[in-house]
Amino acid sequence: MGLPMAKNLLDAGYDVVGHNRSPEPEEELEAAGGDTADTPAAVAEQTDIVVSCLPDTDAVERVVRGDDGLLDGLSEGMVYVDTSTISPLATEALAADLETLGVDMLDAPISGGEEGAIQGSLSIMVGGDAAVLDACRGVFDAMGDTVTHCGPSGAGQTTKACNQIVVAAQMVGVSEALVFAENAGADLQAVVDAISGGAAGCWTLDNRASRMIRGNFDPGFFADYQYKDLRIATDAGQAYDSPMPLTELAHELYKSMAANDMGRDDNSGVMQVIELLAGTEARIDE
């Protein structure tokens, strides 16, 4: 995700210095006209705005607080933008620590998958100081089409958790409906076409259902990532005393995907778990 975002920043006229744990993305960034650095600290020393895109909370903590991490290179007046999806509680703590150094942090998790990152059409949910976001608006506009200020530090992560709660509910609901339709003997494509235009209409029906009934679960967003994001949501729900009965169920279904070596399938592949429970597959013959 980070590499196409960096390329879009280059295309928008920004100077980009990047660091990645594996060499291939760095080589591709250099081929596109960017520069690279050996450590996160070295990136921070050469830039005014640092943007990270990492898989989980632990990775962000290591990149920021670890040896040769961002804390060793950030200085007063800089801005740190974290586009990872991580714990809102950890984000609030990190923003508070950076504030003592005179560094502003914007938590800015993204939605839209790799396709959105490549096209520069991501939806970006931002927490932090609105004035800092306004000062960085050009950077955000290069990466996404929809940039929304959601509130103070941590609010971006909270909004992303809300997004993933709804995405998972859609995926599970559509999967359950399609397996039900299969068992009832209905025409699956006709079911998809019919309900997409009514009150049930949603992103999953429009963009994934036709693939699902053809057994196409090539990843746009890994099920492993959906599982991780739901863990973040349920942990935050516990911390904030917010009941999450549906999200807890979805979490268990995605856990089953991970346990059955389906974690690298698309998150719409949760239908395969419903199919295992039903003892049938919801597929069309072509």
What descriptive keywords fit this protein?
286 residues, N-(1-d-carboxylethyl)-l-norvaline Dehydrogenase, domain 2, elongated, 3-stranded parallel sheet, HIBADH-like_NADP-bd, mainly alpha
Q: How does this structure look, described?
A:
- β1 (17-18), α2 (23-31) and β2 (35-36) form a beta-alpha-beta unit.
- The chain has 15 helices and eight strands.
- It folds into two domains: 2-151, Rossmann fold; 159-278, Orthogonal Bundle (N-(1-d-carboxylethyl)-l-norvaline Dehydrogenase, domain 2).
- α9 crosses α14 and α9 (155-183) packs parallel to α15.
- The strands form three sheets. A three-stranded parallel β-sheet has the order 3-4-5. A three-stranded mixed β-sheet has the order 6-7-8.
- The mean pLDDT is 96.
- The radius of gyration is 20 Å and the shape is elongated.
- With 286 residues, it is mostly helical.
Please compute the radius of gyration using only Cα atoms.
Answer: 20 Å
Spell out the helices and strands N to C.
Answer: HEHEHEHEHEEHEHHEHHHHHHH
Mean of residue pLDDT? 96
- Strand order in the largest sheet: 3-4-5
Helix/strand class: mainly alpha
CATH architecture of the largest domain: 3-Layer(aba) Sandwich
Q: Distance between termini?
A: 34 Å
Q: How would you sum up the major sheet?
A: 3 strands, parallel
Quick one: how many beta strands? Answer: 8
Outline type? elongated
CATH superfamily of the largest domain: NAD(P)-binding Rossmann-like Domain
Helix content: 40-55%
Low-confidence stretches: none
Proportion of beta-strand residues: 5-15%
Number of helices: 15
- Under CATH at level 1, the class of the largest domain stands as Alpha Beta
CATH topology of the largest domain: Rossmann fold
Organism: Halocalculus aciditolerans
InterPro entries: 6-PGluconate_DH-like_C_sf, 6PGD_dom2, 6PGDH_NADP-bd, HIBADH-like_NADP-bd, HIBADH-related, NAD(P)-bd_dom_sf
Domain 3-hydroxyisobutyrate dehydrogenase-like NAD-binding: 154-273
Keywords: NAD, Oxidoreductase
